[in-house]
């Protein structure tokens, strides 16, 4: 009888202990609090830009038409720098557009001719993703150029200071480097093609240039203002 009571006491103790252990095992696990949700702001807004272009190759093709035939010629504008300024808008992470104005004045290797170019362009770009702060892009633009030849050659005085407005198109490619959240360094290449125009016509004689084709290396900054 004494052994029976002892056995029951021991069984009751282990039963009670097992209940506490089981209760502890079934307690819900404690999870860390979730961080508050922070919305991601899209890369959009207005920006200002300024660039300096180095014109390393600019070709002008021209010809003189006579009743007896055509005399073609080709000359190069000397290398030089061109400033550009503009304003644009970033629509989203991949698409942006801007309007730019630029100017250059360069001599040529054809007699004593100075060429002055004013360019007004509307451009669109596709940004190809941001990789460790670097965004490659491609783009294209259309616009107008005012071409002024100050010609000192032996043909006709009416060619001097002749100013013409032409259609222009361009293709661009480059990279943008994040300097600060609002400031980017823009490095790129640009090909521009300015259309041709008749410069002088007198009876059966016509002098025409077939356009200006320019290759540029560009460096500038873009600053998001709004």
Automatic annotation (TrEMBL):
Signal peptide: 1-23
Pfam family, one: OMP_b-brl
Domain Outer membrane protein beta-barrel: 40-222
Superkingdom field: Bacteria
Keyword Zinc among UniProt keywords: no
UniProt xrefs under InterPro entries: Beta-barrel_OMP (IPR027385), OMP/PagP_B-barrel (IPR011250)
Entry keywords, A to Z: Signal
Record's protein name: Outer membrane protein beta-barrel domain-containing protein
Source organism of this protein record: Phyllobacterium myrsinacearum
């Amino acid at each position: 009888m004494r052994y029976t009571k002892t056995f029951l006491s021991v069984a009751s103790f282990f039963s009670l202990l097992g209940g506490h252990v089981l209760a502890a095992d079934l307690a819900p696990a404690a999870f860390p609090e979730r961080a508050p949700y922070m919305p991601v702001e899209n890369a959009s807004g207005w920006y200002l830009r300024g660039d300096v272009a180095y014109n390393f190759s600019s070709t002008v093709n021209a010809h003189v038409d006579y009743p007896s035939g055509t005399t073609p010629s080709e000359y190069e504008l000397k290398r030089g720098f061109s400033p550009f300024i503009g304003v644009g808008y970033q629509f989203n992470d991949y698409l942006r557009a801007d309007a730019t104005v630029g100017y250059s004045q360069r001599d040529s290797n054809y007699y004593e001719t100075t060429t002055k170019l004013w360019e007004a362009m509307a451009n669109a770009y596709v940004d190809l993703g941001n990789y460790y702060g670097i965004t490659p892009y491609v783009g294209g633009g259309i616009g107008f150029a005012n071409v002024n030849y100050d010609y000192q050659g032996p043909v006709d005085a009416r060619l001097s200071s002749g100013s013409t407005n032409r259609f222009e198109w361009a293709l661009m490619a480059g990279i943008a480097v994040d300097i600060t959240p609002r400031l980017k360094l823009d490095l790129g290449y640009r090909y521009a093609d300015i259309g041709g125009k008749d410069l002088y016509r007198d009876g059966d004689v016509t002098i025409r240039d077939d356009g200006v084709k320019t290759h540029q290396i560009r460096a500038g900054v873009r600053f998001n203002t709004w």
